[in-house]
TrEMBL record:
Keywords: Membrane, Transmembrane, Transmembrane helix. The chain crosses the membrane at residues 6-24, 31-60, 66-84, 96-116, 122-139, 146-167, 187-208, 262-280, 286-306, 318-342, 430-451, 463-480. It comes from Paenibacillus faecis. Residues 227-239 have a biased composition (Gly residues). Residues 217-251 are annotated as: Disordered. This is Uncharacterized protein. It comes from the Bacteria. The keyword Nucleotide-binding does not apply.
């Protein structure tokens, strides 16, 4: 492929290996991420000042990129707090309790609903919608918060996003790079997405039940989950302030008819959001913004009704609680996000044009180099496409490297006379499952934050199922070539 690897590429790769090793050992990764940013900055700028300031600049870059997700999580949590305190969530969730009575039904029910919703609106806004309504029900019937996060994550950011059959953003990118039509790639991806989805989710559920029976299950909670991951009565406070919050929570009350009216109206408002997303073709950030704005309006209305004369002050208090939760969850993730963003365009934005001519970013260069160093046959092509997709997914976006996967698939298909569409679909699936939000810790934030669990614990819980699924999917692809 003509890609020249430099010390920058090797340092980045070594840091990734170190990060993965620490994650497997359940250790924190902040220091190694900061060290990686420092070393990359030193190699790029050649100056101590440039590398030191690069650490701060990388943190700022990551925070800007994540701000939309931080905001939607914080706002939904703030809304959830007022629904919990007023008892509206109890009234709203009552009917669902009739259908969701066991952890198994909760796991598969949440997953399937998440998948269907994500097909139409992508996973991030879907997480907020599903978590706000179904998470409390799942917790009551015994599904752990981390189990709910796994279900939302694998079905949404895994199955739905890797297929992307409705919005078709992913298949269009890979198909264009491979010289194919989006329809060809989608058709070829159906059996691969099905195998990946079934193997991964069944493995994840089996491991969860096994560990629960053995007593080795770790829920990884960083806050007690309520509706939509909302904090419990005193999570954001301490001391006298915490006790005051609990006392005040007990005093908040609404009449039965008002609760029933709001319990009906709130789901209808979110349903209206879903209709608006479909009708107005809102996707990604626009869809998330619609959900966030609706949550703010619900928060204000309920706070004014519940607290009356103190409604103005309590609205601000709920928002503060939500933001405290949001930044508490994102605090450990910003350093690792800052490092992985350097694998893509952030490196040039922060350190200038210091990569070799023709470079398409560190992770894309590594993927291309791998593709150029393996023997050309069908089986090797399938394994290489899975590896290239996984490597390019390490920047955490899932989408930045799928064009490379498409171009590499075309190269192998021509050289080996195999099916380009199947290879392209395999690369797409690997990139999105790894980088779209099932293995890279900072990409797991939406589901983890909604459920009040650590994104690192969620990544560890997903690791074996996703790797097993990728192996099975690659094997199926080899037979389909």
């Amino acid at each position: 492929m003509g890609i020249q690897l430099t010390a920058i590429h090797y340092v980045y790769l070594a840091c990734i290996a170190g990060i993965l090793a620490l994650l497997i050992r359940r250790r924190d990764t902040t220091i190694i991420c900061v060290a990686g940013i420092f070393l990359l900055g030193l190699l790029a700028t050649g100056t101590l000042g440039g590398s030191v300031s690069g650490i701060f600049d990388a943190f700022i870059y990551a925070t800007k990129e994540l701000m939309g997700t931080i905001m939607i999580i914080s706002i939904v949590v703030a809304m959830s707090r007022v629904l919990i305190r007023t008892g509206i969530n109890e009234t709203m969730l009552g009917p669902l309790m009739r259908f969701i009575r066991t952890p198994a039904v909760a796991f598969w029910g949440i997953g399937l609903i998440m998948m269907i919703t994500s097909f139409f609106f992508w996973p991030s806004p879907a997480v907020a919608l599903i978590g706000a309504v179904l998470l409390p029900v799942a917790l009551r019937v015994g599904l752990p918060a981390l189990g709910a996060a796994v279900a939302m994550n694998l079905f949404g950011h895994g199955i739905a996003l890797s297929g992307d059959y409705i919005i078709q953003g992913a298949p269009k990118l890979t198909a264009d790079a491979a010289g194919l039509s989006a329809g060809e790639v989608m058709a070829a991806s159906v059996p691969l997405v099905a195998v990946m989805g079934v193997v991964t989710t069944v493995m994840a559920y089996w491991l969860m039940r096994r560990d629960q029976k053995r007593g080795t299950w770790r829920d990884g909670q960083i806050a007690e989950p309520g509706a939509a991951g909302g904090l419990s009565g005193g999570e954001a406070g301490s001391g006298e302030g915490e006790r005051g919050q609990r006392q005040e929570a007990e005093q908040v009350s609404l009449s039965g008819p008002v609760k029933k009216t709001l319990a009906l109206l709130i789901p209808l408002l979110f349903l209206a959001d879903v209709v608006a997303m479909f009708w107005l073709d809102l996707q990604g950030g626009q869809a998330t913004a619609l959900v966030g704005g609706t949550a703010v309006l619900i928060l204000i209305a309920v706070a004014l009704l519940a607290h009356r004369g103190r409604g103005l002050e309590k609205t601000t208090s709920y928002l503060i609680d939500g933001f405290v939760f949001g930044f508490k969850v994102f605090g450990p993730v910003i350093p690792i996000a800052a490092f992985f963003y350097l694998g893509d365009s952030a490196f040039t934005d922060l350190f200038g044009e210091t990569l070799p001519a023709g470079s398409h970013g560190i992770v894309n260069d590594l993927g291309a180099a791998l593709a150029g160093s393996v023997p050309l046959n069908g089986a090797a092509g399938a394994v290489t496409l899975a590896a290239v997709g996984a490597i390019t997914g390490l920047d955490g976006s899932g989408f930045s490297g799928i064009s490379l996967a498409g171009s590499v698939a075309q190269l192998f298909a021509v050289a080996t006379q195999t099916d380009a569409a199947t290879l392209t679909a395999l690369g797409q699936i690997a990139a999105i499952w790894v980088g779209g939000g099932t293995l890279i810790p900072w990409a797991l934030i939406p589901a983890a934050a909604i459920c009040g669990v650590s994104p690192f614990e969620l990544a560890r819980r997903n690791l074996v199922p996703v790797l097993t699924g990728l192996a099975a999917t690659t094997l199926v692809a080899i037979f389909l070539l």
